[in-house]
Design brief:
The complex is a heterodimer of chains A (about 525) and B (about 70). With about 525 residues, chain A is an alpha/beta fold. Chain A has 3 domains: about 1-245, 2-enoyl-CoA Hydratase, Chain A, domain 1; about 265-425 and about 465-500, 2-enoyl-CoA Hydratase, Chain A, domain 1, CATH 3.90.226.10; about 430-460, no CATH class. In chain A, about 40% of the residues lie in helices and about 20% in strands. Chain A has helices at about 1-20, 25-30, 35-45, 100-120, 140-145, 170-180, 195-205, 210-215, 215-220, 230-245, 265-275, 285-290, 335-350, 370-375, 375-390, 405-410, 435-440, 450-460, 465-470, 480-490; strands at about 50, 75-80, 85-90, 120-130, 160-170, 180-185, 190, 225-230, 300, 310-315, 320-325, 355-365, 395-405, 420, 425-430, 475. In chain A, strands 1, 2, 3, 4, 5, 6, 7 and 8 form an 8-stranded mixed sheet that branches. In chain A, strands 9, 10, 11, 12, 13, 14, 15 and 16 form an 8-stranded mixed sheet that branches. In chain A, helix 11 runs antiparallel to helix 12 (about 285-290) and helix 17 crosses helix 18 (about 450-460). The longest helix of chain A is centred in the N-terminal third of the chain and has 17 residues, at about 1-20. Chain A is elongated and about 100 Å long. Chain A starts with a helix and ends in a 21-residue tail after the last helix. The relative contact order of chain A is 0.08. Chain B is mostly beta strands. Chain B has a single domain (about 5-70), classed as RNA polymerase II/Efflux pump adaptor protein, barrel-sandwich hybrid domain (OB fold (Dihydrolipoamide Acetyltransferase, E2P)). Chain B has no helices and 8 strands. Chain B has strands at about 5, 10-15, 25, 30-35, 40-45, 50-55, 60, 65-70. Chain B has a 4-stranded antiparallel sheet, with no helix packed on it. In chain B, strand 4 and strand 5 form a beta hairpin. Chain B starts with a strand and ends with a strand. The chains are: A alpha/beta (about 525), B mainly beta (about 70). The interface of A and B includes residues 281, 328, 334 and 369 of A.
Chain lengths: ~525, ~70
């Protein structure tokens, strides 16, 4: 009889926890088209695979009512995505705005620790108002609640992290998003250090949430978000897709998908169609990437940020690769500061998770001028360069058209990639000959005959043949052979000695620049 | 009706005007072509509508961020 009573008590407590913030609040969310914390987890994980950790946990604050703090506002546990394990943290905004407090921080700490030590990804569904008050107020509140986990905000990339911003994210939800390898944001959600309300109260700034931390800001200006989604479900599906390219942890190679079969002719036709006749005309590099990689496999990161560069995951004959490319369609492919930041972050992620890099080169150089200098362009270019040189994953570069100046090095020129391939129309030099004459004659009175002589001197052979003859390119390939050649060279450069595992020398590098 | 201000995304000069004020434009259609770094860089309509205002002429220098035309959609 006692055992039955105990079981009844368990069921009652489980039911109370699963009622979350109550029927009325849950109904309002449903009417607004938002998934609740449980529904988000169900959307992510394989059916029936979720095991919750801390279902019966409640607030431990003195005097707190356990009835009003089911799960202490954050749902956590373990599930499977496409058969592989993941840890999940899903904020329940219907319980005290999913504010951070002692018990729920212990819950997050636990699943993070398990995922890190056992080797699988962590997924965060962000929707939190920040630290709970009054729990965190005063010296004792701060001393009790915060700063007691010295690993709380450390990112060493032991396993992949992915975040979705699915409501207002202030405080820890924003921090975890920024620390993640992949961040998606639903339109209408916001992410910021603090809410517009606090901005108004503390500094008298009146600002709309969208302006303070909306999807346009983060996808176009800050670059803190990798993708934007229309709905909760779409955002969660993007996380599933992101994880499909990644290994479960840094000590394994990425999973292989089914190869698409023989598609060489389609790839060749698409490459020819994309490449313009005139060397002065631009094209959209994303179309070129799509032509070369496995059909439908290109998963672009930060498409609206740093657009002179293109970054994204893809597959080549089923193998995960990371694409770093210039996009002539934007600023003629001249990389600006956001483009450098985007490339750096992406290279570090790929290197940390054993993803080979393919560099597709068509750039007149880095953007020059006042704006870039004010944004620390030299430092950003060197972050990018150092990241490329510290990589231990295979790096293969293809010079498609232009490769000029320092950008030649940053895009894998010389020994900065394991293999340099170039198309027959590629051109390589330090700068345009006309500009070079201006530079060397600056401040001097030089007649036209001398300028002509200098111009002829500067316009030395900038064709691909010079590069091939001195073995600064290992192969010159026809554009239509690019896919087949890359697949073959990926096979040559598979890291056989370590089973495809790199050295991860940038594992502790920042997640934003 | 919404007015979309279209800005140059690169510093350069206006090489060619493709569409004149008053003309209809489709989304993604080139309105003008800038020349920068010896490349022809199209400025495309952000939405289908009509080109209500053209603020530059061929040969004009433009800076990144300058509004060069307005599309009413």
């Amino acid at each position: 009889m006692a055992a039955e009573d105990d079981t009844a008590e368990l069921r009652a407590r489980e039911a109370r926890a699963r009622a979350m913030g109550g029927a009325a609040k849950l109904a309002r969310r449903r009417e607004a088209g938002l998934l609740n914390a449980e529904e988000r987890v169900e959307r992510l994980v394989d059916p029936g695979s979720f095991v919750e950790s801390g279902l019966l946990a409640v607030s431990s604050a003195p005097g707190a009512d356990p009835e009003t703090t089911p799960r202490d506002g954050k749902l956590s546990g373990f599930g499977r995505v496409a058969g592989r394990p993941v840890a999940v943290v899903s904020n329940d905004f219907t319980v005290k705005g999913a504010s951070s407090s002692q018990t729920n921080m212990k819950k997050i700490g636990h699943v993070k620790r398990v995922a890190t030590e056992r080797g699988f990804p962590i997924v965060f569904f962000g929707e939190s108002s920040g630290a709970r008050m009054p729990d965190n107020m005063g010296a004792r509140g701060m001393g009790t609640q915060l700063g007691n986990d010295p690993q709380q905000y450390v990112r060493e990339r032991e396993s992949p992290w992915a975040s979705a911003v699915l409501g207002q994210c202030y405080g820890s939800s924003a921090w975890y998003t920024c620390l993640s390898d992949f961040a998606v944001m639903r339109k209408g959600a916001t992410m910021a250090v603090a809410s517009p309300l606090l901005a108004s109260a503390a500094i008298g700034q009146t600002v709309e949430p969208e302006e303070l931390g909306g999807w346009k800001l983060h996808s176009e200006v800050t670059g803190l978000i990798d993708r934007v989604a229309e709905t909760d479900a779409e955002a969660i599906d993007l996380i599933r897709r992101f994880l499909s390219y990644l290994p479960s942890h840094r000590n394994e190679a990425p999973p292989r998908a089914e190869p698409p079969g023989e598609i060489g002719e389609e790839a060749a036709a698409a490459i020819r169609k994309t490449l313009p006749e005139s060397r002065r005309q631009v094209y959209d590099m994303r179309k070129m990437v799509q032509a070369i990689v496995d059909p439908g496999s290109f998963f672009e990161m930060k498409p609206a940020f740093g657009r002179p560069a293109v970054t994204g995951l893809a597959r080549m004959d089923g193998q995960t690769v990371g694409i770093v490319a210039n996009n002539p369609r934007h600023k003629a492919g001249a990389m600006d500061v956001p483009a450098c930041e985007k490339c750096t972050r992406f290279i570090v992620m790929c290197d940390s998770f054993n993803i080979p890099l393919l560099l597709f080169v068509d750039t007149p150089g880095f953007v020059i001028g006042v704006e870039g200098e004010r944004m620390k362009a030299p430092g950003k270019i060197m972050n990018f360069m150092t990241a490329l040189q510290m990589c231990t994953v295979p790096k293969l570069s293809v010079i498609m058209r232009k490769s000029y100046g320092q950008a030649y090095l940053n895009m894998g020129g010389g020994r900065n990639s394991d293999e340099v391939m170039a198309w027959p129309g590629a051109e390589i030099s330090f700068m345009d000959p006309a500009y070079a004459v201006e530079v060397v004659t600056w401040g001097r009175d030089v007649d036209e005959a001398e300028r002509d002589r200098l111009r002829a001197d500067m316009a030395r052979d900038n064709t691909v043949w010079g590069l091939a003859e001195i073995f600064a390119a290992q192969a010159v390939i026809a554009p239509e052979d690019t896919r087949a050649h890359l697949i073959r060279m990926l096979e040559v450069h598979q890291a056989g000695l370590t089973g495809g595992i790199g050295r991860h020398r940038m594992a502790g590098w920042p997640t934003t620049y | 009706m919404a007015d979309h201000e279209v800005a140059a995304d690169v510093t350069g000069t206006v090489w060619k005007i493709v569409k004149q004020a008053g003309e209809a434009v489709a989304e993604g259609e080139a309105i003008m072509i800038l020349e920068s770094m010896k490349m022809e860089i199209p400025i495309e309509a952000p939405a289908a509508g009509s080109l209500s205002e053209l603020r530059v002429a061929e040969g004009d220098p433009v800076a990144e961020g300058d509004v060069v035309c307005v599309v009413s959609a």
